[in-house]
Protein: Tetratricopeptide repeat-containing protein
Organism: Dyella marensis
Amino acid sequence: MNGRRDQHESDPQGRTEPTLGNLDQLDAGSAREQRPPDDGLPKVTLDAGQRRAAAASHSRDARPGSGSRRGWIWPLLLLVAIGVGVTFYLQQDRVRGMLPTTELNDVLGRAEQALHDGRLDGNDGTSARELFEAARALEPDNDRARDGLRKVGLAEVAKADAALAAGKTDEAEQATNAARELLGGGSDVDRLAQAIAKARGANFEAGALVDQAQQAMSAGRPADAGALYKRILAADPGNAVAAHGLDKVGDALAAQVHKDIDAGDRAAAGADVDRLAALLPNYGELPALRAALVQDQKEDDGQLSEAIRLGQAALRAGRITGTGSDTALAHFKDALALDPDNAQAKAGLGQVAQALVVQANAALDSGDAAQASRLLDQATELAPKSAELAAARAHLGDASRHPGSGGMVPGELPQADAQAQLTPQQTAELAQLVRQAEAAARGGKVMLPPGESAYDLYRRALAIDGNDEAARRGLQELPSTVVQQFNQALSGGNLQQAGERLNDLADLAPGEAGQAELRQRLANAWMDQAEEHLGAGDRPGAAQALEHARKLAPGNPRLSSITARLQGGG
């Protein structure tokens, strides 16, 4: 078949395609088949070329399957658009990060730099908090801004802790409030709030202590004021008011030391120096004060030792009292004028009192009640609570009531005659008083309380019968009872009670030679306690213990070494 196809050709599906040869025939047949009914409208007549173009167009539009191939594209495009929208919504932060955000990044960079520099909050627009909040205003869901505000909150927590450590409670509270706003609370914020409340309570207490310290200074008690200021500084080392107050205490104590030295009161001067060393170990004038005290002590020690030596010599020579200056009484008084707390001088006066009591008993035995009374009066001035003196006075009173007993040895009055002069009521009262006195002595109530002590009860019994053997023996044995109680208190570590018993002994037997050894034992115990306080870091306690020891034994060589440790902080 090499000619033109003039006939219709069929496609594989049996459809007939128009050809150039049959186009006119197709147009004519189609016109006949599809001619519309006459509707009265003007008819348009097409020439042959127009008919062929129309037929070609019609052939393309009516090609089977062409419409269906184009129809599925639009739903597909719609699905793609929906998928892109969902993806964009879900990945908007990532998408945003891919977009140019010059302004936001600039704000975030400045915020992070402010955080690094410690500019956490403020009102000028340059603080980390303000800048991070500005970034969130630009982009509410920005992760860097949100994390930055969290870091600012944590930095505020650290700032509050540092402020509390420095004692700045107001600054700590401000930082804590900022942290609460940024972090929404939390355990750190709660902890800080509790610490601030506690600190404010401590500040209130510190204010009350400052008032007390200032009152103590006004009352001339600088050592008490210093102890109060030390309490404040122990709880708040940065308290400027307490630190300044302590400096004033140092100046007042230094002035008091000079005053004590000028007045010749070396014991008081030494105690004030120790207080000053305990409160302000680095006080600038402390070395000079120590040197002045040592120099004054050297000058007085020679005079003091000489006065005591002369007093002992006068005692041995029997020059007890008199109008001259070369008597035991005069020399011991001179020694006490140099050192009012000197134990040897006090013991010397006690020995003078004992000698006077002995002379009074001798006068009473010889029947000279008037001379005995004068001697006992002198002894009373020196040792008013001496047990021997009390017994002698009771005997003198009994002898005055019974002149016939003069010249007899004390206690030789026939018991039958003495008892005959007492009523049954007096006898019963006497026995009751002796029993009460013995119980009081066993209970440690030797000299106190007044009226209920063993000393007073025995004296009341002797007032009824000055020669009652039980009452006289009990009164005279009180010193040995006190020594036993002293030893018990010392071995038990009750140094305060041991000191009380030693004072009782000084009243009851002021001239007792063994008291010097007891004083040294107690002084060493106080120094042991001072060293324990130093080892525990309790400098005020060590200073107080040293003061007790110095009063008991001012010449003990241990005092200087412990004092040096106290001054040096060791």
